[in-house]
Design a protein that fits this description.
The chain is α/β, with parallel strands linked by helices. It is built from eight helices and twelve strands.
């Protein structure tokens, strides 16, 4: 993915650039809004990260140009020092996909980027994992051909786990990805939902997959080789 980072703080921009490049992305940094808008005439980007307050023009002006060129096909995330409800409402109403409060918490930053990328990636209508089948478009999951009744959050957590088989996912990462906008939710909620999924989807090995709690880290879903 080709990222555009519009940020006038050089140190902040370099940290974001390093984080994104560590995930294999290409990154171009712009110190102000006008240089980014000018670049839109000759270059293409897949994702924009924009500081709300820039030295020359407002971040909303950059967003307007991005939407004029790409429509709604490209994710836009704002970074802002304003965290009041009115500012958040303004940013989202103007057409941003998400916003990240400053000072930026980098684990949360990457989790939010991953969440947006997952939502934008085209997926097959159905995906099979062991005896579990996910219908991404219909937001349904079947176990051994039988549909399982899941809540919205259970479904979202299941999709993240199933698309990261073999990888340890921290509770904070899961919490941010699934419950990013829910106030008053803590990591115990992740544990509760993981326990429910283990029972509903046969993640104790019956489905061909095993969900394990990794002490002090989070959860890992592994394939089980059944004899």
């Amino acid at each position: 993915m080709n990222f555009a980072v519009v940020e006038d703080s050089r140190s902040q921009a370099e940290v974001l650039k390093a984080l994104l490049k560590s995930e294999g992305h290409q990154v171009e940094v712009f110190p102000d809004g006008k240089s980014c808008i000018e670049a839109l005439q000759t270059r293409s980007f897949d994702f924009f990260i924009i500081d709300w307050i820039l030295p020359d023009i407002g971040g909303d002006e950059v967003l307007r140009h991005v939407r004029e060129k790409y429509g709604w096909d490209v994710p836009v995330v704002f970074c802002t020092g304003r965290t009041d409800e009115e500012a958040a409402s303004d940013i989202l109403r103007l057409g941003a996909d998400d916003y990240i409060p400053k000072p930026i918490r980098y684990m949360e930053f990457m989790a939010r980027i991953h969440a947006l990328l997952r939502r934008r990636q085209p997926r097959a209508v159905t995906v099979q994992f062991g005896s579990i089948e996910i219908d991404m478009e219909g937001r349904r999951i079947k176990l051994a051909g039988v549909e399982v009744d899941l809540t919205q959050r259970e479904f979202e957590l299941a999709v993240i786990l199933l698309h990261n088989v073999g990888r340890v996912l921290s509770r904070d990462e899961l919490l941010t990805s699934v419950w990013a906008r829910d106030a008053g939710v803590d990591t115990r909620t992740v544990d509760t939902h993981a326990s429910r999924l283990r029972k509903k989807l046969g993640l104790a090995g019956e489905s061909g997959l095993m969900l394990s709690s990794v002490y002090g880290q989070g959860y890992r879903l592994d394939n089980v080789h059944q004899g």
